[in-house]
Amino acid sequence: MGGDLRDSLYPSTAFNPRLVWTGACLFAVGLIVAFAYAWGERTGIRALRQGVEHRLDIYAGGLQSELTRYDYLPGVLSLNKDVIALLQDPGNPQWLARVNHYLETVNRKAGSSEIYVMDMEGLTLAASNWNRPPSFVGRNFSYRPYFIDAAKGLPGRFYGIGTVSHTPGYYFSYGIYHDGKMLGVAAVKVDLDKLDDAWLRADEKVLVVDENGVIFLTSVPAWKFKTLAPLSPHTMERLAVTRQYHRAGSLAPLGMAEISRLPDGTRVIQFASEPGQQEASGNFLQPSYLLQSRPIPGTQWKLMALSNIAPIHARARNTAIAAALAMGFLSILVLYLQQRRRTVVQSLAASAALQRAHDQLERKVAARTEALSNANRHLQTEIAERRRAEEELKSTMEELVQAGKMAALGQMAASITHELNQPLAALRTLADNAAVLLQRGRLADAEENLAMIGQLTGRMGKITGQLKKFARKSPALLKPTSIAVTVAEACFLLEQRLRQERITLKIDVPEHACAYCDGNRLEQVLVNLLGNAIDAMMHSDDRQMEIQVRQFDDWVSIAVRDSGPGIPDELMHRLFEPFFTTKEPGAGLGLGLAISAGIVRDFGGILRAHNRPEGGAAFVLQLRPAKLEETVDV
After folding, report:
1. Bigger pLDDT: 630 or 286?
2. In sequence order, which residues have a C-beta less than 8 Å from that of residue 471 and are 6 or more positions away?
């Protein structure tokens, strides 16, 4: 017993090689799919990085070429004698006009934005836009870093937004010397925004940031004059002094954040909010970018390229899916070959066992045939016995119904005897009187007595005829039956008893009420229900009984109600059980309601009982409706 208990508490787990093999295969497939995804991602990033590095060389070369293209111009101006003369005599209108025209011609041929000459105080004396508003002539740019560097004898380089033209550009500046003395500063403004047009066609996002992290050249217009990170208050104050990004907005941060770093140090970044793209696409899931950068020689700028790595992830997923499909196909192929081998083995085994099974089958068929023959004979015997039992049950039921009738007649015997004794006593008296009247010659009075004798004889015949009809033994025959006629005949049988018990009977039966049933048996049910109601009111002061009939589309309802004490709740469910009775011992066998319920079921109806709210009990019959014009002899 102890061993059984241990076995039930700690069931043994048998080693299943198939489950282990399946788990190992699934694990291997998972590793291969993960390796395929990692390999596809690594290969894609390597190819993307190499391509972007090559294009970064091209972008950097183009930007450097654009910067060096104009680097010579400020130095050329120091060789012009008119420029030297103007700086030595700023108020001479002749030198001013000649220098303005000279600067305008050089600017047009060089393709620069503007060229202008300033004295040592930063005041612009002559400019290429001398005749175009807004002109630089008379403007003081001493606060600009490119002027400050040139005034110190250094070559000035500066990118910023013009405070006069309000357009961005790159400024070159050199000091103008004569006999070793600096007389002024020459400056050239170049428009670099045309580089953005070439970058717009690039697959990646290209941007150039200055030493402060401000984006001033980019292939994404919405990023221009944004910052890679929030600027410090000191930097914002310094930019305000130089007016580098005059009227460029608040220099808001772009919200770039590093989310991962590749083994080679390449960063993967994502934007918290990508200006100009989220609103257009409605996609709130920001993409990830591969960030590659390089410095621009000769400047403090940095050239950066952002490549969307979503296509790389998509190709890596496709590679992993392809690997999974290949492994799935290979697994299916292996399973097919195993199943094929197993099928061949099973086929050989089946061929070997087929002959043995054939011999066994023949023996089993012979045995089963004999068993089936015996079973068939036994079944036929059971069917015959069941039919005899059904016939006996039907006969018993008929006898039970007839016994119920006789029991009802026995209960009515006293009242019927009283009903017949009165007419018999009257008949004897009337007959004696008629003889005396005839002897005395009073023929008229004798005829009157004889007429009364005839009426009494007819009443007695009606009573005995109704009793004979009620007691008649006949099979149930369902047909359209008038409910009014049946109710009247049942009440006639109990008329004397109702008078003796001083019971007030109310009958509410429509003349057209008709149902499919056997009239004689329905009369038996009503007599039983009415008799039970009379017995129930035996000790009641208020003795009222009601028969109410209602015909609906789906059924005919016959309700028998009394004013007795009602049916106890604990006995309600046993009312229709055979041999169950609430009457005193010897008053009945308890079969009346059981027989009545069986008769109603044979009609296809229902007999149920309930207590009335105002007191007393009610028995309700529900029968199938019929049309009155179909009614035949009841």
Report:
1. 286
2. 405, 406, 409
| 551: containing domain | 478-630
How far apart CA 259 and CA 269 sit, in angstroms, is 5
pLDDT of 184 over the 90 cut: yes
Beta-bridge partner residues of 576: none
Q: Which residue has the tokens 């059971």?
A: 382
| Mean pLDDT computed over every residue of the chain | 80
The two structure tokens encoding residue 414:
């006293």
How far apart are the C-alpha atoms of 173 and 269, rounded to whole Å?
Answer: 37
Q: Is residue 253 part of a domain?
A: no
Together in a domain, 482 and 626: yes
Compute CA distances 204 → 41, 193, 536, whole Å. Answer: 18, 18, 103
Q: Is a pLDDT exceeding 70 seen at residue 112?
A: yes
Q: Containing H/E element for 257?
A: strand 256-261
Strands 544-551 and 504-508: parallel
Confidence category of residue 276, pLDDT binned at 50, 70, 90: very low
Per the listing, tokens 């149902």 go with: 515
Both tokens assigned to 221: 């217009």
Residues 400 and 465 both lie in one domain:
yes
User: Which residue, 519, 583, 532, is CA-closest to 560?
Assistant: 532
Phi, psi of 160 (to 5 degrees): -170, 175
Residue 508 lies in a domain: yes
Length of the chain: 634
* pLDDT for res 625: 93
Looking at the domain assignment, is residue 265 inside a domain?
no
CA 4 to each of CA 8, 13, 15, 322, 466: distance values in angstroms, whole numbers, following the listed order: 6, 16, 21, 53, 79
Q: CB burial class (10 A; 0-12, 13-18, 19+) of residue 527?
A: buried
Q: Name the strands in the sheet holding 181-190, side by side, starting at the edge strand that comes first in the sequence.
A: 124-127, 114-119, 181-190, 168-178, 156-161
With 0-12 / 13-18 / 19 or more C-beta atoms within 10 angstroms meaning exposed / middle / buried, residue 120 is middle
Q: pLDDT value at position 185?
A: 93
Q: In the chain, what percentage of residues exceed pLDDT 90?
A: 17
Task: Indicate whether 552 belongs to any domain.
Answer: yes
Indicate whether 233 pLDDT > 70: yes
pTM to 2 decimal places: 0.46
> In whole angstroms, what is the distance from residue 562 CA to residue 633 CA?
31
Are residues 568 and 489 both part of a single domain? yes
Q: Which helix (H) or strand (E) holds 530?
A: helix 519-536
Residues 568, 425, single domain; the answer is: no
pLDDT attached to residue 76: 82
In this structure, what CATH number is given to the domain that contains residue 147?
Answer: 3.30.450.20
Q: Which of 565, 514, 558, 563 is nearest to 543 (CA)?
A: 563
Token pair in block for residue 300:
């403090």
Say if residue 469 is in the same domain as residue 482: no
Give strand pairing partners of 270. Answer: 257, 288
227 DSSP 8-state letter: B
- Residue pair 481/516 in contact (Cβ under 8 Å)? The answer is yes
pLDDT of residue 468: 58
Give residue-wise pLDDT tens across range 419-429.
565 566 556 66
- The sign of the dihedral angle between the CA atoms of 566, 570, 575, 578 is negative
The DSSP-derived string for 133-163 is SSP-TT-B-TTSHHHHHHHTTS-EEEEEE-T
Number of domains forming the structure of the chain: 3
Q: Does pLDDT of 3 surpass 60? A: no
Instruction: Say if strands 556-562 and 617-623 run parallel, antiparallel, or are unpaired.
Output: antiparallel
Average pLDDT over residues 199-217: 82
